[in-house]
Write a structure and sequence with these properties.
single chain
Length: 230
């Protein structure tokens, strides 16, 4: 196994070498998707966090009518290690426990969870809408899987197009979305959508759609058309 060196002189594996090592050990991507054992299933995500840390920021939005939208958006914490990720995750409320109108947003550090951010404005989102019953059965699990997809860079090279993810808790039905940087980058978007749907074990016949932020911001959610679907 070869190592590369960063400017500080520390050693780390290349992402390709890490995947090759896991494959040689019998831990191919198919193994992770098929296994029911959480320790093995999340190993790749954990290893990528260890060797290829990427700084993330978790935001919280509370729907206080007396404040502006930006005043309601609050940065909770930033992390770039496995320990900090799990410490943060284990010490905040699950989405199903949040009040209506509240959001969690996990974005790469330097990208704000808003359409107007330079890294978001040309992009869009894979959007999954949950019914009321799914709040208790699926919401928390889906959100955790979404976080692990992001921090574990589960979309291979297409992970570079990922900006972040948002969970919206709403009376009529909750929503989870993965935001990407360029709505015209079809290859990356489809890779993300297909892998995400498989990761969440969404039934094949159940479609999830991708919408551009430009369309979403100019129309109501019910009339926004999907650019892509899987």
């Amino acid at each position: 196994m070869t190592f590369s060196h960063d400017s500080s002189g520390s050693s780390k594996w290349s992402l390709a070498n890490l995947r090759r090592a896991l494959t040689c050990a019998g831990l191919s991507r198919g193994t992770f998707r098929a296994t029911s054992f959480p320790t093995v299933r999340y190993l790749l995500s954990v290893l990528i966090l260890v060797f290829f840390p990427l700084r993330w920021a978790l935001w919280y939005f509370k729907n206080d009518k007396s404040k502006s939208w930006t005043e309601n958006l609050r940065l909770i914490s930033k992390f770039d290690t496995v320990e900090d990720f799990w410490a943060l995750y284990n010490h905040i409320q699950q989405p199903s426990k949040l009040g209506f109108g509240c959001d969690y947003c996990l974005f790469k550090d330097g990208i704000k969870p808003m359409w107007e951010d330079d890294r978001n404005k040309l992009g869009g989102r894979w959007l999954m809408t949950l019914n009321k019953q799914q709040r208790h059965n699926d919401l928390d699990r889906y959100w955790m899987e979404t976080l692990l997809c992001l921090v574990g860079e589960s979309f291979d090279e297409a992970s570079e197009d990922v900006c972040g993810a948002v969970v919206n808790v709403r009376p009529k039905g909750d929503k989870i979305a993965i935001w990407t940087s360029n709505c015209q980058n079809r290859e990356a978007i489809m890779t993300i959508g297909q892998n995400y749907k498989e990761r969440l074990s969404v039934p094949i016949k159940a479609l999830i759609g991708y919408q551009s932020h430009d369309d979403t911001s100019s129309k109501s959610g019910s009339t926004t058309k999907n650019m892509y679907s899987v």
